[in-house]
Amino acid sequence: MRILLLEDHKRLSQSIVEGLCKSGFGVDSFFTAEEGVGAIKTLAYDAMILDLGLPDRDGLDLISELRGNNVSLPILILTARDAVDDRVIGLDRGADDYLAKPFAITELAARLRALLRRPGRALGGVLESANVSLNTALRQVEVDGRVVAISPREIGALELLMRRAGQVVSKRAIEDSLYGLVEDVNPNTVEALISRLRKRLEEIGARCSIHTLYGIGYLLRE
Fold first, then answer.
1. Cβ proximity of 123 and 137 under 8 Å
2. 201: which of 21, 146, 187, 206 fits an S-S bond (Cβ 3.0–4.6 Å)?
């Protein structure tokens, strides 16, 4: 899942990125509202983490602007403003959740997963293909009912393919979803990831496989 983080405190931003990546999220981090708006126009994010005290504008005004422009991605407010009135205003402006600083990264990850499990959002339910199942909330893969170890990045790629099983997923779609705007991605990054995932599926006895359509993308089928 791709998350947009707008937080101007660089050390905190880095800590959030590292923590969420370990929890299976992909994160693009920016320091200003202007950068965030530009990123939203470029990529389709699954959720936003927003610090209200951005250097170029107030986060509450940014929420109002996004909702006024029919941007519907879930927004989790992250701020040192812990007064009840501030929380109420943020939620009334269109935010979906609120987490006051300081906080635990584990709670932030849990709140994101909860937002993304809501009806119509990116998470929720169990995906299945042949004898492979993926619990999208737990980020857990099973083969014939047995839990198997797969890296977070490989799970991300597997989810994209399982959600469109039997259909082609373009290389660009995988790159945008898993790596976003700020990671250094070379031309062979996606190919290497899919190669590792294909090998892992073979090792764990999966009865579905990844097929490459050169110049087009990848598809998962039984």
1. yes
2. 206
Query: Would 67 be classed as within a structural domain?
Result: yes
Residue 121 lies in a domain: no
Report the CATH number that the domain containing residue 44 is assigned in CATH.
3.40.50.2300
Amino acid at residue number 76? L
pLDDT (tens place) for every residue of the chain, 222 residues total: 789 999 999 999 999 998 988 887 888 999 999 999 998 888 878 899 999 889 999 899 999 999 998 888 899 998 776 666 777 888 899 999 998 888 999 999 999 988 887 755 555 568 889 999 998 777 889 999 999 999 988 998 998 898 888 888 888 888 877 776 666 678 788 899 999 999 999 999 999 999 999 888 999 998
Q: Is residue 216 part of a domain?
A: yes
Which residue stretches of 117-215 are H helix? 152-163, 171-178, 189-203
Of 87, 116, 145, the residue at which a domain comes to its end is: 116
Do the bridges between strand 126-129 and strand 132-135 make them parallel or antiparallel, or are there none, so unpaired? Answer: antiparallel
In a domain, 86, yes or no: yes
Specify the long-range contacts of residues 180-185, CB closer than 8 Å, at least 24 apart: 180/2, 180/26, 180/27, 180/28, 180/43, 181/28, 181/39, 181/42, 181/43, 182/28, 182/29, 182/30
Range of the domain at 184: 126-221
Strand order in the sheet with 47-51: 26-30, 2-6, 47-51, 75-79, 97-100
Task: Domain count for the chain, please give it.
Answer: 2
Q: Which residue has the tokens 């990831």?
A: 193
- Residues 112, 130 share a domain: no
